[in-house]
Design goal:
Shape: elongated
Largest sheet: 5 strands, antiparallel
Distance between the termini: 39 Å
Number of helices: 23
């Protein structure tokens, strides 16, 4: 199957092809037959021998539009696909683009809310606070005086992303079917995961629910705040939420750091994320400095919950054990728990994987305080897994990237912060919360409902058991081998052996009788001997027929 050159996809083929050539993957272009879709430029970096930097890749993706900006941000979580310099560059990928006109904002908000902008809000600032690839944010004042921010999605952005993913899907399918790289990394599966996350991010109602859920989960941590959405003013393309005044963590002045209780905030922020990941199972998956603010009340505000990750309950215990093993420097245990989380593919070398993970954990165990980076260790494990043909669950890569971004933020707040020690300090608290969650009223009620049927049938079953026991009628049935079928098979074998002996005896007897002279002859040979030979031949033919056409094979 070749890649079809649809007019709508031609430009994307060209852009993607240029990226492959520029960044050293021209072999993929040749195998995918994309040469006709690429306008060869005599001044390409591949031809001049200039090696492009990782930062150039980020700039190139920015120039290709919103789909590829988001794709780059998601790729920054995949240490199994890209080397560390590219991960760092893509993690810093800027999502600041030119704002779209206020007339389009007014038209879209009016259409979505079903009321004119001037009726819905007392004030609405036409100049956006921020403009990103998927939408932009405006400050507004509601009729009741509440100050809010309104996030408005870019017009036609869904259609554009849909077309981009159609082209990317065709390329991913071809690479999976025709290249070793595709067979190893399964680009279609990765792309499907990216597409799902991006479509979820385009539905602002889901983000509103995330804000409510995460806000409620972290309500006990007073230093962490999450903006509350205004549900009546929220649709799939418009999100209205309370305005939280503050500054980016990275923009704090040295004087502000002096007045700030950085160690306390760093500890509380790290604890909040451990709770989200290991207890709540829903976590803010994009805590880069632009989404983490310091409020005027000296609190940490978590913004932009369009991208969240989920951890299954059965993975939470293993993930906690993995983080504990990393924090304690027990490499073999870290490898063991990693294997429990993932799935081995063809060609997986378990001993090599265990050795590399153990070496990784051992190296970081002896690192200096400023080099300690729990997120980097977890992210590096995904790289080792990718090279070893071991598939990690998608949420693991999001956890790794979240911890990596979190490490950067807490070290801004407190340069001496030790995430490994923090994990050890909070392990007991996390276990207590998990136990409390397991025995919460809702969980207990669910168990009672499941036990209801058992309790209803238990008295009758106990009475029947005691009756059989008292009358010595209790029987235990073990379903192993069908003894009747086994006896029948043995009998058939014995019959065949007996028949074979009879045939052999007839043949031997007939051979001896040929030496006895007699007047009764058949074809010039002693007649009795010939009769015995004929009987043995008939019996032998019947035995062969029974074996070939009547005996059951194991396939039947």
């Amino acid at each position: 199957m070749g890649i079809s050159l649809k007019p709508d996809h031609l430009k994307r083929y060209k852009d993607i092809g240029r990226l492959f050539i520029k960044y050293g993957r021209s072999d993929l272009i040749n195998s995918a037959s994309l040469d006709d879709a690429i306008l060869q430029d005599e001044s390409t970096d591949a031809e001049t021998g200039i090696v492009p930097s990782a930062n150039e890749l980020a700039k190139d993706l920015e120039a290709m539009g919103p789909t590829f900006i988001k794709l780059g941000q998601l790729l920054s979580t995949r240490a199994d696909l890209l080397p560390a310099p590219y991960l760092d560059a893509l993690a810093r990928l800027q999502d600041d683009v030119e704002p779209f006109p206020f007339t389009e904002i007014e038209e879209l908000v009016t259409s979505e809310l079903g009321v004119r902008l001037s009726k819905a809000f007392a004030e609405f600032d036409p100049v956006p606070i921020a403009a990103a690839s998927l939408g932009q944010v405006h400050r507004a004042v509601m009729r009741d005086g509440r100050v809010v921010v309104v996030k408005v999605q870019r017009p036609n952005i869904r259609a554009q992303i849909g077309k981009d993913f159609e082209a990317l899907s065709e390329i991913a399918e071809f690479l999976d079917n025709h290249t070793q790289l595709g067979k190893r990394y399964e680009f279609q599966r990765i792309l499907a995961e990216f597409r799902k996350n991006l479509l979820l991010e385009l539905d602002y109602r889901i983000e509103a629910r995330n804000l409510i859920t995460v806000g409620n989960n972290l309500a006990d941590i007073e230093t962490i705040v999450v903006p509350t959405p205004i549900e009546d003013y929220t649709t799939s393309r418009v999100l209205t939420m309370e305005h939280i005044r503050g500054k980016k963590i990275t923009s704090l002045s040295p004087l502000a750091h002096i007045e700030l209780d950085g160690p306390m905030l760093a500890e509380e922020l790290f604890r909040a994320y451990l709770q989200q990941i290991l207890v709540d199972g829903l976590f803010h998956a994009d805590p880069h400095p632009g989404n983490v603010f310091l409020t005027d009340q000296q609190q940490i505000a978590l913004l932009d919950l369009g991208m969240v990750g989920q951890v299954l309950p059965e993975h939470q215990d293993v993930l906690l054990q993995l983080l504990m093993a990393i924090s304690e420097g027990v490499g073999d245990k870290a490898a063991q728990f990693t294997i429990k989380l993932g799935e081995a593919k063809n060609g997986f070398d378990e001993s090599k994987f265990r050795r590399e993970v153990s070496d990784l954990v051992a190296r970081h165990q002896g690192a200096n305080m400023e080099d300690i980076d729990a997120g980097r260790v977890v992210l590096e494990i995904t790289r080792i897994a990718g090279q070893a043909n071991f598939r990690m669950p998608s949420e693991f890569t999001m956890v790794a990237k979240t911890l990596l971004n979190l490490d950067q933020i807490v070290h801004i707040l407190d340069p001496s912060f030790d995430p490994k020690e923090s994990i050890r300090r909070h392990a007991t608290e996390i276990l207590e919360r998990r136990l409390a969650k397991a025995f919460s009223p809702t969980a207990v009620l669910r168990l009672l409902v499941e036990a209801k049927g058992l309790l209803e049938k238990l008295p009758g079953r106990v009475n029947t058991f005691l009756h059989l026991l008292a009358n010595n009628e209790l029987r235990i049935k073990v379903d192993t081998i069908d003894e009747n079928l086994l006896l029948e098979a043995f009998q058939k074998i014995a019959n065949r052996i007996t028949l074979g002996l009879v045939i052999a005896s007839l043949i031997v007897g007939a051979a001896l009788l040929t030496r006895v002279e007699t007047t009764f002859k058949i074809l010039g040979y002693p007649g009795v001997a010939i009769i015995f030979f004929l009987i043995a031949a008939c019996m032998g033919l019947w035995l062969v027929f029974a074996i070939v056409f009547k005996d059951k094979t194991s396939d039947e």
